[in-house]
Amino acid sequence: MGETLYDSLYTWSLLIALVAAGFGALLCVYFLAARFSGRAARRQLARLANVAGSVALIAMILSVTVHLAFGHAPTSPEPMGVVEFALQHKAYWLVLVCAVLTFLGPTLVEVRQ
Hints:
It contains four helices and no strands. The chain is mainly alpha-helical.
């Protein structure tokens, strides 16, 4: 029972992280491509992108922590080191790259203008 609870927790939190990071990355691409006339519209979109990136990072940290602690701990059936875990679980890298893009996009627009 406990193992399936942890599996569900890290899977759902990874799914939330992927959706939030993807949404934030799409907002960022839109933010970079669109020309906004008002500064208020840019600020609102930047805030929304920051919220999406924050949700993605928090959910990713939860997922990585639970997955490492209960799925690949030294006493688990599949023990794995941190480096091996990072190399085999590429979905976390995708979330991280999208979250960084989400945070950097509005900054790049402000610098460009």
